[in-house]
Design goal:
Elements (H helix, E strand, L loop, with lengths): L3 E4 L2 E3 L5 E7 L9 E6 L6 E6 L6 E3 L7 E6 L4 E6 L8 E7 L11 E5 L2
Parallel strand pairs: 2-10
Antiparallel strand pairs: 1-3, 3-8, 4-5, 4-9, 5-6, 7-8, 9-10
Length: 116
């Protein structure tokens, strides 16, 4: 069972940037694809970005393409999400987890609030 701890969220103005981090308690090198999910109030959790085990292949949901960049450091068991040009629609709690889900517990997430 891998434990996941997300950090880096906060309050940012529209157009601003944040960099999220996800630290895993165990090795993620052999896990495969990892992803960042988000859940806005009253909405279902959605996958916004994913990255292959090597870090070479990435994929994004349409609403964040060109603004978000996912990366990983397998040596440090960490996955990152660089978020630029943030809009209020990006406000949500952000989580990382495997893709597809493997039954790991969700972390506490990190709140991202985009507001002027």
């Amino acid at each position: 069972q891998v434990q996941l701890v997300e950090s880096g969220g906060g309050l940012v103005q529209p157009g601003g940037s944040l960099r999220l981090s996800c630290a895993a308690s165990g090795s993620i090198a052999g896990i495969g694809t990892m992803g960042w999910y988000r859940q806005a109030t009253g909405k279902q959790r959605e996958l916004v970005a994913r990255i292959s085990s090597s870090g070479i292949v990435t994929d994004y949901t349409d609403s964040v393409k060109g603004r978000f960049t996912i990366s990983r450091d397998n040596a440090k068991n960490t996955v990152f999400l660089q978020m630029n040009s943030l809009t209020p629609a990006d406000t949500a709690v952000y989580y990382c987890n495997s893709v597809p889900l493997r039954g790991w517990n969700w972390g506490q997430g990190t709140q991202v609030t985009v507001s002027s």
